[in-house]
Design a protein that fits this description.
491 residues; UDP N-Acetylglucosamine Acyltransferase, domain 1; 2 domains; 16-stranded parallel beta sheet; 9-stranded parallel beta sheet; elongated
């Protein structure tokens, strides 16, 4: 894979600051309320795993290295992130027993103990939960900026929510400064009425935070080491702790259940669609249009209701995607039209091509410029040259078509002999009549014609007509005789 753009942005951001910035992502939880065999942070929303969203955000905020604290399915989480972000300085720390957020952060101590020969890490650290996929990099950059501008030992990202149940409360003193962060389970009735809550995202000076974490004791009803107790210790020592309020609470939602997963997916999708519309894309019905964060769509393109764009799909300018279309990993040029209910995966489509309705482009399909792949046509590992057409009811598998080829309705490339796949090749200007079977391997020369109803089992020379159907014979009176016979048999 190519160089990670998030990492490049991190380096550019970091080069503008004197103090280095790292990140610790807390991703050890199993997520029992998800009721899943898959670790919670590996569940997907808007085209990425939850933890990949989070790591991408901290990278875009300028943080590197990134230490991911893993526990449940640790090997799978590490393998997934290394595959997804191969050019990133990722480090992993293990938390085999979930003993609280403070314990999780302490597990990152060794990973940040020596930064590749440059001594112990002494900069600032972003601490983010691995199940908050909608958290934008802009919020993290604002947190870091206000943390450093406020000369604080620690800063916490907060939000004002209508229903604060389950969240730690931000308790402010006179003058509006933070007096304490109290976990929901330890909050008094008065504290539970507070609507400003802790998002679980922090920025802190790493040496100061470690000194406080070493003093944390499990003095709570759960018997765990809370990161919020480190905040209490910092406040008690006279250190400054800031709160940075984020204006959109939906972006700070952590995923604990499948309902949460659906909610954050909608939040990310809404943000993605707004970005596209601001860039000149028409989205006719944002409520029914789903676009992964990894998708790119060119200016003046139109997305109709019920469209799903997934993976590394990239559409050029002026494309039209009609209702019910699903594209995954598709690269399309300019002015391409995908008609209703087309499905395409890992395919390339050239400028001005028209696909569908009800077409199916399977992986390794390459559709050239100005081509037509129409109603109920299926392709697989097939290349169509410029201006070629397969307008309806055909299957083209393991085929190479030149330019200007016309494929009639009902054409099938018989590419599989039960053991191996074989290739069909058609030269420029080949014309295939309807209801034709091309039994691969077979080659059709430039300008060859195939008569309707033909089964082609051997090569066709250029400019030749291939025909294999039997001569027609009409049997007069056959229908009447058959009817009389049937009457006798039925009494």
């Amino acid at each position: 894979m190519g160089r990670n753009p998030s990492r490049r942005l991190a380096r550019e951001t970091r080069s503008k600051t004197e103090r280095p910035l790292a990140a610790v992502v807390l991703a050890a939880g199993e997520g029992t309320r998800m009721k899943s065999r898959t670790a919670k942070v590996l569940h997907r929303a808007a085209g990425r795993s939850l933890v990949e969203h989070v790591v991408d955000s901290v990278l875009r905020a300028g943080a590197e290295p990134v230490v991911v604290v893993v526990g449940a399915q640790a090997d799978a989480v590490e393998r997934h992130l290394r595959d997804a972000l191969p050019d990133t300085d990722l480090r992993f720390a293990s938390q085999p027993e979930r003993l609280g957020t403070a314990d999780a952060v302490l597990r990152a101590r060794r990973a940040l103990g020596a930064e590749r020969g440059r001594g112990r890490f002494t900069g600032d650290v972003l601490i983010v939960c691995g199940d908050v996929p909608a958290l934008p990099a802009s919020a993290l950059r604002a947190l870091v900026s206000k943390h450093r501008g406020g000369d604080a030992a620690l800063s916490v990202l907060t939000a004002i929510v209508d229903d604060p149940r389950g969240y730690g409360r931000i308790v402010r003193g006179e003058g509006g400064g933070i007096r304490a962060i109290v976990e929901h389970g330890d909050a008094s009735p008065a504290e539970r009425k507070i609507h400003e809550v802790n998002s679980g995202t922090y920025c802190a000076g790493w040496p100061e935070l470690l000194a406080a974490l070493d003093k944390v004791k499990p003095d709570n009803t759960q018997g765990e080491l809370y990161l919020t107790d480190a905040v209490r210790l910092l406040l008690g020592s006279g250190s400054r702790v800031n709160a940075v309020v984020h204006p959109d609470p939906e972006e700070l939602v952590g995923v604990n259940t499948r309902r949460d997963l659906g909610s954050v997916g909608r939040t990310i999708n809404r943000r993605t669609l707004c970005r596209l519309m601001d860039a000149g894309v028409t989205v006719i019905d944002p409520e029914t249009t789903w676009v992964d964060v990894t998708v790119r769509v060119g200016r003046d393109s139109i997305l109709h209701p019920g469209v799903t764009l997934e993976g590394r799909t990239k559409l050029g300018s002026g494309c039209v995607v009609r209702s019910g279309v699903r594209l995954h990993g598709v690269s399309a040029g300019r002015d391409v039209e995908f008609l209703d209910h087309t499905v395409a995966t890992d395919s390339v489509v050239g400028d001005g091509a028209k696909i569908g309705p009800f077409a199916h482009l399977r992986p390794a399909t390459v559709v050239g410029p100005e081509c037509k792949v129409g109603n109920f046509v299926e392709t697989k590992k097939t290349t169509l040259g410029r201006g070629s057409k397969a307008s309806h009811l055909s299957y083209l598998g393991d085929a190479v078509l030149g330019s200007g080829v016309n494929v009639g309705a009902g054409t099938i490339t018989c590419n599989y002999d039960g053991v191996r796949k074989h290739e069909t090749r058609m030269g420029d200007g080949v014309f295939i009549g309807s209801d034709t079977q091309l039994v691969a391997p077979v080659r059709l020369g430039k300008g060859a014609y195939v008569a309707a109803g033909t089964t082609v089992t051997k090569d066709v020379p250029p400019g030749s007509l291939a025909i294999s159907r039997a001569s027609q014979r009409n049997i007069e009176g056959w229908v009447e005789r058959r009817r009389n016979k049937s009457k006798k048999e039925n009494g």
